[in-house]
Every structure is written in structure tokens, then in C-alpha cells.
Amino acid sequence: FGTNPAAVALLCRHLGGPPFSFTVHGPDEFDAPVALRLRQKIAGAKFVVAISHFCRSQLMRWADLADWDKIKIVRCGVDESFLSEPLTPPPDNNVFVCVARLSEQKGLPVLIQAVALLKSRGTDIQIRLVGDGPLRRVLEEQARHLGVADRIDFLGNRSSAEIRDIIKSARAFVLPSFAEGLPVVLMEALALGRPVIATRIAAIGELVQEGQTGWLVAPGDVEGLAAAMEETKANDQHADQRGAVRTSRLREHDVKLAARQLSDGFASSGDRKSR
What we know:
Layout lengths: L3 H11 L6 E4 L3 H4 L6 H7 L2 E4 L2 H10 L8 E3 L6 H4 L11 E5 L8 H13 L5 E5 L5 H10 L6 E5 L3 H9 L3 E4 L8 H8 L4 E4 L14 E4 L4 H13 L1 H8 L11 H15 L6
Parallel strand pairs: 1-2, 2-3, 4-5, 4-7, 5-6, 7-8, 8-9
Helix pairs in contact: 6-10
């Protein structure tokens, strides 16, 4: 990653060590590019991997123009266990699943507020929240305070196989993040044929196609998030149409393709002795 590991690699290189590359997902690197010395790391690397066009653009902001060509896009891959699952239509239920670290950047208080707003309008939504983190107690208290504790299931950390089953049991996947790179869990939900509701930030628009595979809402917009969830719950045709097709963009997220691209990068960028 572009944080401490790349700093160690850069120091080793200055001391006569081997050439190095590093991969940036974001958003942590984008929050502190000067403190993390991204410009110097990019200059010292043989090549740099960005996981999306958005990610590459943010690295270009802090790189010297002469180093732009070093920055290559290699997208994250979806595990074959998700891609090989038989496609099933979204079930006719009120269950939405969210898989996320319970931290500030995921925007989860907005999701709980949206559930409370829908409850006040007579719309019953059940959230299955997979993951753990420093905000768990805060989120549990918020759900109790807003009267929706019975509608938010805090499931904690689960295995990949369990997450597959949980996503398949849901009407749709929802992720109200404030900051992201490009979440692999969105790719997993699409691979399982579930529509996605996500925020219009970072590289998410490179994956989620508005009106085809999901809905994009403004970050922090409780009303917009609630409206998207309500539409997904009420509209069988849209839920099935948007969720039942594995988008062509998902083909870019093949782990074998990513491995080949990385291998080519290593082979072409190493010293002759290293090759």
C-alpha cells in the first residue's frame, strides 16, 4: 500500500535495495498525500498501481508530470466463489444488507436515519449489518434512540461464505459511504445479482450503472437514501432488472486478469538481474 510499506520500500531502494512498486486503493492516501510523501514514493517507484480511474487521477494530482505514465490501472478482482454462484432473482422481502467496517467513513448513521425516516412513513425496512468496528456501540445507541433497534441486525464479522448467503437472502445491497476507493463488496453484490444502492463518490460510478445495476445517491442525503430503498422495495421489475444482470463492467474485475497485469508490470519494470 501507499502508506508505511511503500515508505520502507523507498528507504530500502535509496540504500541500494531492489526496485519496488506499490498499490493505492484510497481513501487514506488521499487524505494525507503530503504527510505520506506520495510524490516522492511515486518518483522512487518503478510503477504504481491504482485500482480505478478516480484513484489514478488522485495520484496524478500529487505526482510530477514526468511520472504520470508510471501509474497503471489494475482493478480489484472478485473471488471466483461469487462469480460462480447461480444467479437468482432478488427475493420479495424487506431485507437490505450492508457489509462494512463500522467506522466513520462508511456513513452508517445516515443509513440508520433513513430506516427511521421510512418507519415514520409506514415503510418497514430490515437492515442486516455485517462487520464490526469502533462505532458499533454508537450505532447501536443511535438505533435505540431512533426507535429502530429491532430493524437493525448487527451481525458482526462473518466468513466469506456466510456473507455470500446473507447477500443472496436480501432484496438489495446498500452502502452509504462518505469516502471510498472502490469497495470489493459492491462487486460481490453485483456478481450475486443483487442491485446496489451506494453513494456517488470516488470510483463507485465506474462500477455501479445508474438505472441498470443500482442507484447512486448523494453522500449524507438521508432523504435520497430512503427514497432509493423505498423504490427498491416497492418495484419488483426494477429490482429484478437491475440486480439480475452481471454488468459487463464486472468483467474488468477478474482476479486472473489482475494477476496477469501485475505480472506484466513486474516483468517489464524490474532490473535485468531481477527479471
